[in-house]
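Two folds, back to back.
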Amino acid sequence: MPPKHQIGPIGAFAVWAALTLIAVIYAFSVRLGRADSAATLTTFSIYFAAAIFFTNREILDFVRSRFQSAAGYLLGVVALLAYLIFGFGTGTVTFARVAAISALIFVPLALAATARRARPGAWQDYVTIAAVWTAVKFSPTHWFWPSPGGLRLAYIFTVLLCVTVAVAAFLFIRQFEDTGYNIGWGSNWSIYVFGTFLCFAAIAIPLATGMGFVEFRPRWNEWEMFPFTALAILCFTAWPEEFLFRGLLQNMLQRSTKSENIAWVLASILFGFSHITNMGFPNWRYVILASIAGMFYGWTWRLTNSIFASAIVHALVDALWHFLFRTL
């Protein structure tokens, strides 16, 4: 059930402008120098534009029709130029950093190119997803993005860069369809999103407390920050993870196994295992709970064919976990 109403070009621009404005306000709050501020915000706006604008089908189809698969390589070049703007603007550019970022961008694109004529679910697709996820999870983010003036955006920049690479590789070079890379809303989606969230909460809260994973400890004095925290989680955690694990991985497993249910279960288990290093290795309690969460996120994606819907469920889970519980 695809979205009945999807965000248009003007809406995509409005979302991009609003989040960029928030970034500007944040930059001023930590009192960055002018050069650092300009370079950092320019880089952020470029990467965030790549993540937001191509959720609109008109923009995506226009770029595809104009540039074909070359659009992926052009987007990779733009991603590298954005990094150079950051590096030169903040005075942190080095040959080693540029070489590492170039590899992070162009190795996955080259790998995707070798499977350009293959059906979705080729081995190169799975390796590319693994490479992008590894970069998010284990790459030296603070080495890539030395934080000027106390602005802590290293992880966010790495996430946005990896989303840009995934968009270039899969939406342009491989030209995947039915990933659900959109922002929109459809009939009964409110029921799907909040119903899924409540069902997961009914299972996860007793299980997590019974396993000694969390304890109920609300942060009542921090609730004024809840909207901003939830928005940050939605944009920089839930959205990228839902794109990789549902829009791409579950999507490809579904094509490879020819079974929606097998793909759903496998993607959820792999999502769970991707958290095994969180808060200590091996964190099996985290794996179990994340796998169960992945089942609910994957179910939402199946019902709506949109990572936006599953990302909202994901963001609600993470944000309320942050404010209502303390991880033991």
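---
second:
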Amino acid sequence: MTQLPSSLPPLAVTMGEPAGIGGDITLAAWSRRRSERLAPFFVLDDPHRLAYLAARLGLEIPLAEIASPAEAAAVFASALPVLPLERRVSAEPGLLDSANAEAVLEAIRRAVALTQAGEAAAVVTNPIHKQVLMEAGFHHPGHTEFLAELTGSERAPVMMLACTLLRVVPVTVHLPLAEVAQRLSPDLIFETGRTTANDLRRLFGIAAPRLAVAGLNPHAGEGGRLGSEDAAVVQPAVERLQAAGIDARGPLSADTMFHAAARRSYDAALCMYHDQALIPIKTLDFDGGVNVTLGLPIVRTSPDHGTALDIAGKGTASPTSLLAALRMASQMAAAAQHTTA
């Protein structure tokens, strides 16, 4: 059973891109609150938009407008708590409109502020459409960097993808493969590993985290015959992690890191580039992966998928990843409370 301790407030769920599937999966998640035994959450959204969307989807879901997160738990069993945005949102599923960009950002800002104030236990973000936000003046590459700015994080944020079978952390994320080797450095790998280990302790309750560090090249460079980066860049970072008291192994050949027996030997895999991390986790659990931001002073999770404009408003979007993000946020918030208690 996934429940927040009684001393913790509800989770804050953001609207996301209103033309996407965020509303679809939020409504679907609440409708499964009993079968999934979800901890209470509320959504920052326009209740009129959600009511229209529920009717369009043929869902009989009562909505309860709340004035503060403190009201959410009392109504959650019988209605979806909605903390209204200041801006009205007019959106048709699948049709992007930059006029809604500020409402999308308002939902994120307020969710973060409420979590920092202790009124919400964690932030669970629905997918955003970065191009629409950038057209409206948004200057961040995505959620992660925006959240770091909002929280005043002193550490560089780190993206983790997690499911019940695997946790992976890409050291470099959205880069052309040709640029990965020049962007990697011992410092970057070390700081990513240190943040990962710290938050495995703080947010996942793992007392002595074990990190498996993938090599960049096939066979981790094969003694220099397949590239010098593993010996010159990855190995020094692993040694620094070990010197800092972190159980880190590598560089390891990535092609033997992700079978069942290998996964049992570590708590998270540090991967050198995007696909090295995301291919194994999406193969193992395509629908149940969760995007987690490490290095923030708050807990933040998100479904590991995009806005899916092509299926928005059609009732076919799966809430599986959002359900997993809600469960993981609950568990992380509880672990964080226990760690700081």
